[in-house]
Amino acid sequence: MSSKPKIKDLLDESACEYNKTKKQACNAPRPGATTGGCAFEGAQISLFPYADAAHLVHGPITCLGSSWETRATKTTWPGRDLTRMGFTTDVSLNDVIFSGEEKLVKAIDYIMAHYAPTAVFVYSTCVTAMIGDDIDFICRQGAEKHGIPMVPVHAPGFVGSKNLGSRLGGEAALQHLVGTLEPETTTPFDINLIGEYNVTGDMWQYRHLLDKLGIRVLATLSGDGRIKDIRCAHRAKLNVIVCAKSLVSLTRKMHEQYGIPSISLSFYGKRDTSKGLLAIARALGDPGLVARTKKLVAYEEARLEERLKPYRDVFADKKAVLNTGGNKTWSIAAALQDLGLEVVATAVKKATGDDRARAREYLGEKGVLMMNPGVEQARLIDEKGAHLLLAGGRSLYTAIKKGIAFADVNQEKKKSYGGYDGLLNLAEDLKNALENPVFKLVARRAPWQK
Amino acid sequence: MSSKPKIKDLLDESACEYNKTKKQACNAPRPGATTGGCAFEGAQISLFPYADAAHLVHGPITCLGSSWETRATKTTWPGRDLTRMGFTTDVSLNDVIFSGEEKLVKAIDYIMAHYAPTAVFVYSTCVTAMIGDDIDFICRQGAEKHGIPMVPVHAPGFVGSKNLGSRLGGEAALQHLVGTLEPETTTPFDINLIGEYNVTGDMWQYRHLLDKLGIRVLATLSGDGRIKDIRCAHRAKLNVIVCAKSLVSLTRKMHEQYGIPSISLSFYGKRDTSKGLLAIARALGDPGLVARTKKLVAYEEARLEERLKPYRDVFADKKAVLNTGGNKTWSIAAALQDLGLEVVATAVKKATGDDRARAREYLGEKGVLMMNPGVEQARLIDEKGAHLLLAGGRSLYTAIKKGIAFADVNQEKKKSYGGYDGLLNLAEDLKNALENPVFKLVARRAPWQK
Amino acid sequence: MAEVTRKRDKPLQVNPVKLSQPMGATLAFSGVDRCMPLMHGAQGCTSFTKVFFTRHFCEPIAIQTTAVTDALAVLDGGGYSIVESVKNICKKTSPSLIGLHTTGLPETRGDDLRGVASKADFPLVYVNTPDYEGGFESGWALTCKALIEQLVAPAATVNDNKLVLLPHVSLTPIEVERIKELIESFGFNVLALPDLSTSLDGHLGEKQTALSSGGISVEEIKALGNAGLVISVGESMRESAKVLLQKNAGMRHHHFSHLQGLEASDSLVELLLAETGFNGVTPKVERWRQRLQDAMLDSHFSLGQTRILVVGEPDQLAGTCRILHDAGGRVTLAVSSVDSPQLEKIWAKRVLVGDLEDAEAAADEYDLIVGNCHCKALAHRLRKGLVLRGFPNWEEVGNPLKNDLLYEGGAYFLYETANVAEEMRGKTV
Amino acid sequence: MAEVTRKRDKPLQVNPVKLSQPMGATLAFSGVDRCMPLMHGAQGCTSFTKVFFTRHFCEPIAIQTTAVTDALAVLDGGGYSIVESVKNICKKTSPSLIGLHTTGLPETRGDDLRGVASKADFPLVYVNTPDYEGGFESGWALTCKALIEQLVAPAATVNDNKLVLLPHVSLTPIEVERIKELIESFGFNVLALPDLSTSLDGHLGEKQTALSSGGISVEEIKALGNAGLVISVGESMRESAKVLLQKNAGMRHHHFSHLQGLEASDSLVELLLAETGFNGVTPKVERWRQRLQDAMLDSHFSLGQTRILVVGEPDQLAGTCRILHDAGGRVTLAVSSVDSPQLEKIWAKRVLVGDLEDAEAAADEYDLIVGNCHCKALAHRLRKGLVLRGFPNWEEVGNPLKNDLLYEGGAYFLYETANVAEEMRGKTV
Q1: Tell me, what's the pLDDT at A86?
Q2: Residue of D nearest to C409 (CA)
Q3: C50 and chain A: CB distance < 8 Å anywhere?
Q4: Tell me, what CATH number does D209's domain have?
Q5: pLDDT score for B18
C-alpha cells in the first residue's frame, strides 16, 4: 500500500471556497513564467520545524544543498537542533541507474547511529520519485528496525507548488503520526496549532498568552513542535489554523476522523491577534474562558498602545503603499493600520479571492486594490502622496526614484512581527525606514550627469 | 620632608658590581642617539602590576595616552583590573601656569569615589616636576582623607632611563608601603618575588611549583601583586630578585632595614628554572626543602623532556644567532640551548659586564659575542651556516636576504616563555618560525627585476 | 603534497558543502549580458537557486524555469515546456540569449536537449548539467564550454592584443575585474567568459530588468575566436580553454591553477611581461607587490601558529590553501565539495571530499575556518575563528567585493585572516 | 546638528582617547622622505611614540630624541641638546631634513626653538607642540604649517596642473593614495603634504634605513609654491592651506571637511570636473560610485537599526559619522579626543569631548562602536560590536590599508560595519 496521497483530491479540496475559480492556476505553472517554490519545499516548510526529528532528503544535491539553514524556525528543543542540519542522500548517476534504495537505507541507519532522532522524515524528490525508489517500504522497514516513526513524504517538486507541498507534508504527518500515541493527560482546553512554523519566533509572541488563559497547546504542526506531541494531536478539542490556507484539508480530515473542529485565524497585528485569541476562547465554548480572554485582550491592547506611543508621531499622517502577495496583502495592511499608518493601496494580483475580500474590508472603499502593481504603484505613490513603499526588492528602485522610504517585505526577517509584541518590532523597523536618509541620498545624480 | 630619593645614590648603587665602568653611560643618554624608555616608564613597569591600586599619572597626555594598555601584566585580582585602565590629570597650559595641584587633588577624589582602589600611586612627570607640584603633600593629605596608602612616585622622565625608573618605583614602594602592615600569619618559607611583573603570566609558570614545595610568596613587587601583601613584605625570610638587576638597591635596603637576605635568579629556560628553584630552597636553609626541591626539579625536567620530544627533530643541528640586549643576551641563549639549538653567536653590545660573562659561560669558547651585531650578524649567518636569527624587527631584512628563519625577540608577546612550561611555548614558536616558508618566499625577486 | 581522501564512505551528506551543477550553470549564464538563464526542471530548483543567489549577492537574480510538472514529466520529453518557456520569456523581455540548463529530472527522463535546441528559433545555448553528477564548479565550467562550442565562430587570424580570460566559478566579481585590470595594464583588450565583474558586482543600475545586466555580450562571445591569447584560471576551466583553442589554430593558451599568493601572481605577471616584451609594470602593481610581501611578514607570526580548515570548491581551495601556506598558515584540513584533479595539488596536510560533519569530526585539527556561512554554526559551536568565503554567504553583505587575489587582494586576505586568528586567540585565552 | 558638550567637568582623563600633540608632529614628519623626526624632550616621550607607531603600523619608525635630562633640563635652554642631537644623528645617517618638535618639558622651560633653529647648519624645520596643549590632530596640522612656512619658496607664477593635497592626521596611507589617484585621474600632478601613502603604507622596501623612507621630498616641498590648486581635507588643515596661499597670490584653495560618503565624494569630483572642464570620469570611478550606492542600500536595513558610538579625532569623526548617517546609521554619540570647530558639524545626536569612561557611562545609548583598540575592552565588557578605526590599533595588522574614503572605500566601510552589526545582533539574540 502506497502512502502517496491523491494529488487531485488535494487540489480539489472542498474546504477552499475560492478553489473553483483558481484551480487551473494552482494546478499548472506556466513554463518560463513561474516563480515560487515547489512541492518539496512546501513539504519541508510544514514539517521541518520538528527539531527532534531528522529530515532526510532523498535526491540529488540541489534540493537540500541550496536550501538548508535558510529558515529561522526557532525551537526550545534541548537536544541538538536538527532543523539547523542538512541530511541528503545526494544521489549520484549510479543511484539513478541502479536505484538509490540501498543508499537510503544506509543513510537512515547512519542517522540513527549518529543522531538518534525521535523520528525520521524521508522526502522523495523529482529524481528519486521518477526512478521509483520505494520510500514507503524503506520507511516501514526502518521504523520496525529502529523502533521510531519514519515518515515517507511524497512531495517531489514536479507535483506542483509550495502550497501543495505543504498540504502533502500535512497529509504525511496525519497519516503516519497523528493518532499513534495517547497523551498522558488531557484538558478541556487542548488545542493544536496548525500551520504555525514559529519562523523568527512568531509563535512565542502569543503562546504565553494562551498559557495565561489556561489554553494548552497539545501539539503543533509544526513550530517548536515535538514528534510525541503531534502523535497525540487527535485528542485536541480544537485545531487552530494559523494563517495557512494550505492545511485546510488536513484539518477537515481530522474533523472527519477525530471530530476535532477547526478555526482559521491570523496573529498579525493588534486587531487580528485580539480577534484570534477570542476566536479560540469562543470555539472552546467556555464562558469563563471567554471572559478571561476579553480581559487579557483589553490589558494587552492597552499595554501595546502605551508602548507604541513613541512611534505615533512618526506614523501620523504617513501613507503607505503595499505590494506583496497572499495573505500578506491584508495581514500586513491591518498591522500597518494598527500602527497608525494609512494604507492607500495594496497589491492583490497574487492574492486569492478570499484575500482580496479581506483586503477590501481593511482598506475600505478609498483604498486601491492593485491588479497590476508593477505599473500602478509608482503612479499611486504620486497621486496619493505616499511616504512608504512596502514591497519586494525589485521595487526598491521605484521608491528611490520617488524619493520615499522603502521596506522590503520579502527581506529575510530575523525578528518576529507577530502578536502584540511583534508589532513593536514592525513599528521600529518602519520608523527606521521612514527616518532613513538613504532613499533620498542614493538618488543623487552623479556630478557628471548633471 | 620630601620623599624624593637621591638619584645619585641610586646610580652609585654599590650592589651593582659592574657599575663603576658603566656609570657614564647609565647616567647621561646621548642626545640624538638614544633609544629606550624613561624613568617614568620604568617606575610604571615596576608598580603597575598592582591591579588593586589606581595608577594616576600627573602630567600631560603623552605619558599615559600613548602607553596605557600596552603591557599584558596578568592578575588574579577579582575586582576591576586597574592595570587595564588609564588615569591621567592631562595637565593643560592653565595648569602649567597656575599649578596642577588642585586638579590632582580632585582627580584623586574622583578616583576614590568611582573606583575605590586599595591604594593610589601618583606619578610625577617632567612637566609637573618642573612646575613643582607637591605630590608628596597631596598624597599625604589624600591618604589621611581617604584612609588608604597614597604613594608619590618621583620618576619624571628627565631623571634618566627606564632602569633607573624601576629603582625609583621600588624605592617608593619601600618607603611608603613596605612595613606598614603586619601579615596575619608567617611561615618559615615566606619569600618576596622582586622584579617579577608577571608579564604574559610568566610568574604563573613557576609559582605553582613554589606552592608545591611549601614556599609561600608573601608579597611580590609586583606581578599579580596586592597592596596589602607588599605592605607586609618586611616579614619575608628571603627576597628573590627575578631577572631584574635594577632592584638590587631595594633589596639591599630591605636587608639593612629588615635583615632580609636576597638572591638573584632567572626562570628562563630549563636549567635556570631548576637552578632558581634550588637556589631558593638552599637560601631558605632547610635540608628537607632542598631535598624536596631536587626531587621536584628532576620530575619537572623529565616531564618537560618528554613533552619536548616532538620538537627534538626540528631543532637538531639547527644553529641560531641571537641579537638582543640586557639579560636576554644569555637567558634566551640558555633557553635555546635547552631546546637543543646551537647558539653560535649572541650580541653583547647592550649588555652589562655581568651579562657578557654569563653569555660567555653559556656559549662557550666557540660562541661569538657580537660587539657590533648590526654588521656582524649577516656575516656570521653565512660563516656558521645559521638557520635562525632571533633579533628585533629591523633585522628581519637580514634574515630574508639570507633566506633563513627569523623570530622577533622584541615582538610583543602574548604567551609566556618562562619556567618549564613556557619553554614549550618557545619551542612551538621557534618550530613555527623554522618551518615557515615565508622568509624564503618573500625574498623572491619581482618578475620585472629578473 | 596533501594526503587526499577522495572516496566518501558515508551513504549521505550531513551538512553539505556541495552545491549542484545546474546552480553553477545559472551563475555562468549570469555573466552573459542580457541573458535569461532557463533551468529545465521542476520549479523548485529554480526557486531555490534564485533565492540562494539573491541572498548571496544582495541583487535580483534573473532566472526562469521550464516548470516541468507531474503530468508533463512523463510525456513531454522536454520539448513542450522548453518551447513554451522561450515563448513566455520573450513575451515579457527581449533577452540576447537564453541559457538552457538541465537538472536531474529531465536528465533522468532522457530529454533530447540538443534536438529541442536545434529547433529553437531564438538565440539559445544549452548545456546538460544533471545535479546527480559533478557540482557547482563543473556546472559553471560546462556552461562556459557550451557557450564557446555553440557560439564562438571559428577564426583563422588572431588579434595579438585580444585576450580571453576563463575564470573558475569561485572567483568573485571584483576578483575577475582585478585580473582583467592587471592584464589590461599590459595593453591587452581582455574579455572574460563568463564575466560576473560587470553583472553581479553589486552596483546600482539605471533601471531594473528581468535579465542579467552586465557581463560579456553575446556578440563579444561570438567574436572570441580571434583572440591571440587564452588564460584559464582553475583546473575546472582547462576543458573550456581546449574547446576555445579548437576554434582557431593560432591561439595560444596559458593555464593557472589559481592566482593567490606571491608566486602565482608573479607567474601571471611574468607571462604578461614575456608576451608583451614590456620590461616593467605600473608603479601601482609594483607597490602592491611590496605590500603583499609586507603583509606576508606582518601576518606570518600569527598564521604560523594557526591551524586552519579551508572549505570550498576545488579550484577555490587551491588558491586559498596556497596563500595561507606561503605566509606560514598551517592548513591541516581542506574539505572539498567534490572530487577534482586539483585536489592533489592543494597545499594542505589533508584533503577530503566531504561535508561539514566530516569537518566537525576533525575539530581538534584546526583553530580557524575559512569557508561559507554554513561554517558559522560550526565555528560558533567549536569556538573557532571564521573567515567567510565561498558560496553561500548569507551572513554578510558585500560578497561580490571580496578580493583575495593577486598582490592587492592577497595582502588584504592575509591581514584579515591574521586578524581573525588573533581575535580568536584573544577570546580563548 | 549635534548637541555638543565641549567642557569637561572631570579633573582627569580615565581611559583616554586623546593623544598628544608631539605625536601628531612625529607622524607628520614621517610623511617627508628621508626625514628624521627629532622630539625635543626627555627620552621617554620618544620611546613611547616610537613603540606606539611601530605597533600600529607594523613598521620600524624613524625618530630621535634630544634626551633632555635632569641636569640639563634646568641649565641648557635647549640649545645644547638640539645641536648635539643633530650632530649625533648625522654621524649615522644623512637625513634630508630634521623635524624638530617639542614636548611639554622644553616648552615649560621656555626653550627658544626659533633661536636654536636659526643657528642650525642643517636642513631643519621646527615646530612648537607642547603636549599640554592641543592634541594629535593639531600636532600634525602645526607641523604641516611649519613645513610650509619654513620650507616653501614664495612664487609668483602657477602651474595649473600642479595640485597640493593637505590631508588631516587620521587619513590612512591608502586613503591619501586614493585621493591622489582620483585627482590624478583628472590629469593633475598631485603632491600630498605630508604624504604617508608612500612612507607608512606597509611595503617591503629594498633595505632598511634609520630614516623615514617614502613621503614627499624636501625638494618637492620647497617647490610647492607654484601649485595652481590647494585642497585641504579636515578642519585642522585650514590653517596650513592659509599659510600656503600666502606663498603665492595666484593659488586657489578648496576645502573639504571630510571625504566620506556619497555627497562628499561627489563634491570632490564636482570640483575636479569644474576645474578641468572634463565632462566625465573614468569608467572605474563611475562604477565605484554605483557600488557605493548599492552598498548604501544593502547596508541601510542593518545600519538603520543600529545605534553607534564613534570615537576619535574631530576630523575623523566628521567623515565617519557622516557616512554612517547617510546609510541610516544612528550615530547617537561621538566622543572626540579634543575640541574643534569641526564638532558642530558632526552628524551625531550628541558630541562629547571626552574619554572612554564617558563612553562607558553612556553604554545604553549604542550597540556598536567605531573606534581605536582601547575600545576593545569596552566592547567586550559591554557586549557591543566593534569596528576598529583610528589610533592606536594594536589589535590588528594591516592598518595602513584600511580605506573608508570616497566611493570605493565608502562601499567597503559600510559593508564592514553592517556585517559587524549583524554579527553582533546574531550574538545577542
Answers
A1: 97
A2: D401
A3: yes
A4: 3.40.50.1980
A5: 44
Q: Are A42 and C42 in contact (CB under 8 A)?
A: no
pLDDT for res C44: 95
Q: Using 50, 70 and 90 to split pLDDT, how confident is the model at B388?
A: very high
Nearest CA in chain D to A407: D301
HEC string for A214-229: CCEEEEEEECCCCHHH
Segment A291-335, tens digit of pLDDT: 999 999 999 999 999 999 999 999 999 999 999 988 889 999 999
Answer yes or no: is C107 within a domain.
yes
In this structure, the answer to whether residues D211 and D174 fall within a common structural domain is yes
Size (chain D), residues: 429
**Is the pTM value of this prediction over 0.90?**
yes
pLDDT one-digit tens code per residue, D131-181: 999 999 999 999 999 999 999 999 999 999 999 999 999 999 999 999 999
Collect all residues of chain A within an 8 Å Cβ-Cβ radius of residue C16: 61, 64-65, 68, 86, 88, 90
Contact C132 A156 (CB under 8 A): no
Domain count, chain D: 3
pLDDT in tens, B400-448: 989 999 998 877 778 899 999 999 999 999 999 999 999 999 999 999 9
Q: Is residue C322 part of a domain?
A: yes
The label of the residue with cell 513554451 reads C84
* Of residues D213 and A300, more confidently modeled: A300
Q: Which helix (H) or strand (E) holds D90?
A: helix D79-92
The mean per-residue pLDDT over the stretch A412-416 comes to 82
Give yes or no: residues C275 and C310 share one domain. no
C-alpha cell recorded at residue C166? 576563463
C204 touches chain B (CB under 8 A): no
Contact partners, residue B310, CB within 8 Å, separation at least 6: none
Please check whether residues D71 and D38 belong to one and the same domain: yes
In C, minimum Cα distance to D302 occurs at: C397
C277 and C314 part of one domain: no
Is residue C164 located within the same domain as residue C242? yes
Distance between CA atoms of residues D302 and D294, nearest Å:
14
Which residues make Cβ contacts (< 8 Å) with residue A422, sequence separation at least 6? A202, A205, A268, A415, A416
Percent of chain C clearing pLDDT 70 (strictly above): 97
CB contact, 8 Å: C58 with chain D? yes
Phi-psi region of D398 (alpha: psi -120 to 50; beta: other; left: phi over 0): left
User: Residue C332: inside a domain, yes or no?
Assistant: yes
| Record: contact B66-D48, CB cut-off 8 A | yes
Of C270, C279, C300, the CB nearest to B436: C300
List the one residue out of B264, B276, B260 whose CA is nearest residue B213. B276
Do C128 and C256 lie in one domain? The reply is: no
Residues of D in contact with A446 (CB under 8 A): 266, 269, 286, 289
Residue length of chain A: 450
Among A438, A444, A447, the residue with its CB nearest the CB of D300 is A438
**Residues of chain B positioned with their CB less than 8 A from the CB of C429:** 414
d(CA C388, CA B280): 52
Residues C304 and C375 in one domain: yes
What is the extent of the structural domain holding C120?
21-134
Q: Are the C-beta atoms of residues B142 and D47 closer than 8 Å to each other?
A: no
Question: What burial class does residue A440 get, using C-beta atoms within 10 Å of its C-beta: 0-12 exposed, 13-18 middle, 19+ buried?
Answer: middle
Distance separating alpha carbons of residues C214 and C35, to the nearest angstrom: 9
Is the previous residue joined to C392 through a cis bond, with omega within 30 degrees of 0?
yes
Question: Would the pLDDT of B374 be above 60?
Answer: yes
Minimal-distance CA residue of chain D relative to B101: D11
Q: A and B: touch, per 3+ CB pairs < 8 A?
A: no
Whether residues B157 and D44 touch (CB distance < 8 A) is answered with yes
Place of cell 552623479: A446
Structural domains present in chain B: 7-176 (3.40.50.1980), 190-300 (3.40.50.12380), 309-442 (3.40.50.12380)
